[in-house]
Amino acid sequence: MQEKSTTPRMGRCVIGAGSVVTRDIPAGSLAAGVPCRVIREITEADALEHHQELF
After folding, report:
1. N or C of the chain: less Cβ packing under 10 Å?
2. Confidence of residue 45 (pLDDT cuts 50, 70, 90)
3. Residue 19: how many CB atoms within 10 A of its CB?
4. Maximum separation of any 2 CA atoms in the chain, in Å
5. In what order do the strands lie in the sheet with 14-15?
6. CA 26 to CA 17: how far, in whole Å?
7. Torsions phi, psi of 17, nearest 5?
8. Which residues on adjacent β-strands are paired with residue 30?
9. pLDDT tier, 13 (very low <50, low <70, confident <90, very high otherwise)
């Protein structure tokens, strides 16, 4: 019998500073909080090439 992992799994995502991750976070997500929750999906419009004002 295989034991269930208690370590949360995260795909390629962004986690806010100070967040406490207690469950799996799907890839392509922005998550933050205590406990950490998915806020929204990261889209192509979030890419830095679309935000020249940041440079």
Report:
1. N
2. confident
3. 15
4. 54
5. 14-15, 29-32, 37-41
6. 17
7. -60, 140
8. 14, 40
9. very high
Which amino acid appears at position 42 of this protein? I
Cα four-point dihedral sign 50, 52, 53, 55 = positive
DSSP 7: S
37, 51 in Cβ contact below 8 A? no
| Helix (H), strand (E), coil (C) string for 14-49 | EECCCCCCCCCECCCEEEECCCCEEEEECCHHHCHH
Are the CB atoms for 34 and 23 separated by under 8 Å?
no
Q: To which residue do tokens 């991750």 refer? A: 21
Show the tokens assigned to 17: 């500073």
